[in-house]
Write a structure and sequence with these properties.
Elements: H1 3-17, H2 20-29, H3 31-36, H4 45-64, H5 66-71, H6 76-85, H7 120-156
Helix pairs in contact: 1-2, 1-4, 1-6, 1-7, 2-6, 4-6
Length: 157
């Protein structure tokens, strides 16, 4: 699964969970079913680098955004994104040296759990759908919280 997909869904799910440690742990664990689901990994080192840069950019924007801090003061989206992305950091080793898959720690990376492959188009559609559904759920929670906070402000006056 693409790193940006792990990062984006982790951010959304972390926000939905609403507590930093559970967000980190659940999103780290979510890496397994996402990796096991049929997907197409980047074919080249360039693809991995670009995918990693997108993931880092998303994490950086969540970490530095004042709006994100206001909407998610406990930083659960950030913890979720980091937790979901963390297992793939070990895959970057292959950019610098030849790596035997069996030396990876994460079970879907060292072939303990198999990763099913899909074509690039099907993989893109399924990953985009997963991210869109995750963001839609997070947006629904955000709207509820904004309505609730607007209602409590109206009652105070």
């Amino acid at each position: 699964m693409h790193w940006i997909t792990h990062t984006a869904t982790g951010a959304a799910w972390g926000f939905l969970i609403g507590r930093p440690l559970p967000a980190f742990l659940v999103c780290a664990a979510s890496h397994v079913p996402l990796d096991v689901a049929p997907h197409h990994d980047p074919d080249s080192d360039t693809g991995y680098v670009m995918d990693s840069m997108l993931g880092v950019a998303l994490i950086s924007s969540i970490a530095s955004s004042k709006t994100a801090r206001k909407l998610d003061p406990r930083r659960c989206a950030l913890y979720g994104a980091i937790g979901a992305a963390l297992p793939d950091v070990e895959l970057l080793r292959k950019l610098f040296k030849e790596v035997d898959r069996k030396t990876y720690l994460f079970p879907t990376h060292n072939e303990t759990l198999p990763q099913m492959q899909a074509g690039p188009f099907a993989s893109t559609v399924s990953q985009a759908t997963l991210v869109a559904l995750s963001f839609a759920l997070a947006a629904a929670k955000m709207r509820r919280e904004l309505r609730r906070s607007a209602g409590s402000v109206g009652r105070e006056g």
